[in-house]
Amino acid sequence: MIPMTLEEIARVAGASLHDVREARALVTAPSAVDSREVVPGGLFAATAGARVDGHDYAAAAIAGGAVAVLAARPVGVPALVVEDVQLALGLLARHLLGRISPAVIGLTGSVGKTTTKDLLAQVLERHAATVATDRSFNNELGLPLTVLRADAGTRYLVLEMGAGRKGDLRYLTGIAPPHVGLVLNVGTAHVERMGAGPADVAEAKGELVEALAPDGFALLNADDPYVMGMAGRTRARILLYGRSARAQVRAEDVRMTGRARTAFELVTPCGRAPVELDLIGEHQVSNALAAAAVATALGLGAAEIAGGLNAARRRSAGRLEIVERPDGVTVVDDAFNASPESMRAGLRAVKALAGARRTVAVLGAMGQQADASRARHAEMGRLVADLRFDVLITVGSGDPLAMAQAAESAGQGVAVHAAEDVAGALRLASALVEPGDVVFVKASSEIGLGACARALAAPPS
Questions:
Q1: Does 115 count as an annotated binding residue?
Q2: pLDDT attached to residue 212
Q3: Residues in domain Mur ligase N-terminal catalytic (predicted)?
């Protein structure tokens, strides 16, 4: 964060000062929307959510070291009052970018954004000062908060950009115009909000490459026809990545190692280098190639990129997060979110990890699947059976029951159990899991299965 006075912030955000004794007081630390994450010298942005109103925590934020509160109304402590806190954060982030000049990398896609962002950050950090999105803070609040962590020494700014509906990426790229735009894939995540199918999702995701200048780079997944269809929507230079032979950044000699990890030969326009990832699942090859494509566009060599990928580790919780219990049970927590694409990838990765060990799947609903939701859940149930999972526990009524019925009807011997809620799933899993099992937990974030995964990962008493 570049130090800014409250006076400067007020001018940029169109704010009025309330209960401020010193207008020249400096904000020297990043901003936060959670009063528990405020750091001394920072700014607390009071936003009103469905369950919590940040204005109620203004005094706690000041007590925690915030210089002032960015608020929609006076709160009895030093505050910059604006009409729209979210809009003001965006204006402030855009202002900060005008004072520094990092290479801004924007990335989007239906699945894999956070893992790719984490891999890319670890590649670039070895080369120069890098700021990247924390966790999955990729929306209208999270993106400006990430930008506001940058300072004059920041060389690379890696911004995960989420899109729940058309226009979202146009708004985010307006705050932080990217020099490099990376599109991972087009799937069914958020299809309920975007339109009837993948073409509508592609229309929304393509807003990222439309925002690129002619001297920028559009990095497109050569293995995804919907992403390739975005080539005509950008003025930027195009660099293709993927496993296709036409990709300039690609993987050759892809193979699985004994720990369900993946190794391959990285091929770039400037050379080759061997890569062995520490993440489980063959689908990670695409994420690694996406990160490699960005690094290639930024001028890094193949050996340097491979070194970063080889050293990279999982950073974000709830994404194929592996915990080994003392009794030999392995819990794979993938409960941060779920779509058909990520569910398929996770199920296959866990079976590869398990080998001959017994496998248990604890699965909840995949949200925002529109009219195809029941059919897609049934498809996941059939996949559980086809992969020969030993036990399936579905969580919740409605679509998860379609998953359970499909798995049972497949006739592959999977023992199917249905839990009404997360607490019921935990009780069932605790009773059914045996020493040495591999347990896979996944659902959309609103289901709350992460709590079940964490409880199962705790050593048994």
A1: yes
A2: 98
A3: 33-75
232 known ligand binder: no
Q: How many residues in total does the chain contain?
A: 461
Q: Reduced to 3 states, what is the DSSP secondary structure of residue 143? A: helix
Whether residue 351 is annotated as binding a ligand: the answer is no
What pLDDT does residue 164 have?
A: 86
Q: Per-residue pLDDT tens for 363-405?
A: 999 988 888 899 999 999 999 999 999 999 999 999 999 999 9
pTM metric for this prediction:
0.93
Cite the beta strand spans of 243-390 per DSSP E. Answer: 249-256, 261-268, 271-280, 321-324, 330-333, 359-363
Q: Are 277 and 262 in contact (CB under 8 A)?
A: yes
Whether the domain at 4-83 and the domain at 321-457 fall into the same CATH topology: no
Return the number of other C-beta atoms located less than 10 Å from residue 449's C-beta: 28
Q: Where are the domains of the chain?
A: 4-83, 100-311, 321-457
> CA Rg, the chain, in Å?
23
- Write the burial class of residue 167 (CB in 10 Å: 0-12 exposed, 13-18 middle, 19+ buried): exposed
Regions of the chain where pLDDT drops below 70:
189-196
Q: What pLDDT is attached to residue 79?
A: 98
271 is in an annotated binding site: no
Is 110 within any annotated ligand binding site?
A: yes
5 annotated to bind ligand:
no
Q: Write the class of the CATH domain 100-311.
A: alpha beta
User: What pLDDT does residue 371 have?
Assistant: 83
DSSP classification of residue 336:
T
> Which CATH number applies to 321-457?
3.90.190.20
pLDDT at residue 197, rounded to an integer: 83
For the domain made up of 4-83, the CATH class stated in words is: alpha beta
Residue 460: predicted pLDDT: 82
Residues whose CB falls within 8 Å of the CB of residue 225, separated by 6 or more in sequence, listed in order: none
* Residue at 24: amino acid letter: R
- Tell me: is residue 109 an annotated ligand-binding position: yes
Please say whether the dihedral angle defined by the alpha carbons of residues 315, 347, 241 and 172, taken in this order, is positive or negative: negative
**Predicted pLDDT of residue 1:** 86
